[in-house]
Write a structure and sequence with these properties.
Radius of gyration: 25 Å
Organism: Planosporangium thailandense
Protein name: Transcriptional regulator, AbiEi antitoxin, Type IV TA system
Largest sheet: 4 strands, mixed
Shape: elongated
Helix content: 40-55%
Strand content: 15-25%
Strand order of the largest sheet: 7-8-9-10
């Protein structure tokens, strides 16, 4: 029983668990003296030697936090692939009815919703992806950062907008509720990054451009690809790239995608963060010009006084 428990917990066991499995306090001490066990945190032991894997470190934090504790925030996001890299600090949430001593290297959050937020199956204990997303929006430094969490989670197909919306509704107190809810509507129609959200809001809608389709799947002999923004009726594609720099492999992939669009008879426009965020009016003017040259009979509108879009 003890061996299975340790295997399930990445080689870790607590003093209470070891005692419950029939060991005595002296037997635990003997394991430590012999070097077969070692304490990682108070009353939490590693039953192996050598480096401590990331999974064991996460288990150690949640075991030390005690009954009802779950990994949350950045640590829960790390486990499901919402973050590309783990953070140095480990985040755990514990029931607000309890108070625990500080845990080295760990940020402790108190919540009255830990039981409802916990994923029913995943181990180590952790919050559901939708709850994790909402948690991260609330610790974000800005509304832009909060919106990017939602876009990334849905864009990576880790969850769905309706599930995030339900998690938002369950929170009585919430920063940026209106902005987050509006972003979910945009994610539902296919805006899967913060740059795509900004293009939809600040370029397309603000300047009265025709409504585009998003994340359009194109199947070719070499596989499938996705157009970020497609004005299908007019044969115009807008690709959005929020990365500051491209590795060579990514540049070649983007070039192949753009070339394939040209071969298929579409005009391709490509914009980065500095374009969409720094000069949305200029981007709108250029897109409108290409659309009108491709048959659009509408006209762009100025988004505000001083907007540089030329209205016919």
């Amino acid at each position: 029983m003890l061996d299975q428990l340790c295997a399930d917990q990445c080689g870790l066991v607590t003093r209470a668990q070891a005692l419950a499995c029939g060991m005595t306090v002296e037997a635990i001490r003997a394991q430590v003296r012999a070097g077969r066990w070692r304490p990682l945190l108070h009353a939490v032991y590693a039953t192996f030697t050598g480096p401590v894997p990331r999974g064991s470190a996460l288990w150690a934090a949640v075991l030390r936090a005690g009954p009802g504790a779950v990994l949350s925030h950045e640590s829960a996001a790390e486990l499901v692939g919402l973050l590309d890299e783990g953070t140095t600090l480990i985040h755990v949430s514990v029931p607000s009815s309890r108070r625990i001593a500080a845990i080295p290297g760990t940020v402790v959050h108190y919540s009255s919703r830990v039981a409802e937020a916990r994923h029913p199956l995943r181990l180590p204990p952790q919050t559901r992806i939708e709850e994790t997303v909402v948690d991260l929006t609330q610790t974000a430094a800005s509304v832009e950062q909060a919106l990017s969490v939602i876009a990334r989670a849905c864009g990576r197909r880790l969850t769905r907008p309706d599930r995030v919306a339900a998690a938002l509704s369950a929170r009585k107190r919430l920063r940026w509720r209106a902005e987050l809810s509006a972003a979910l509507d945009d994610v539902t129609v296919g805006a899967h990054s913060i740059l795509e959200l900004r293009y939809l809001r600040d370029v397309e809608r603000a300047h009265g451009l025709p409504r585009a389709s998003r994340q359009h799947t194109v199947v070719r002999r070499g596989g499938r690809r996705y157009d970020d923004v497609r004005y299908a009726q007019f044969g115009v594609v807008v690709e959005l790239d929020g990365r500051a720099a491209h590795p060579d492999e990514t540049r070649w992939r983007d070039m192949r995608r753009d070339n394939a669009s040209v071969v298929d008879g579409r005009r391709v426009l490509r914009y980065g963060w500095a374009d969409v965020v720094g000069q949305p009016c200029a981007v709108a003017a250029q897109v409108a010009t290409v659309l009108r040259a491709s048959g659009w009979r509408g006209a762009p509108r100025r988004c505000a006084p001083g907007c540089t879009v030329l209205v016919p």
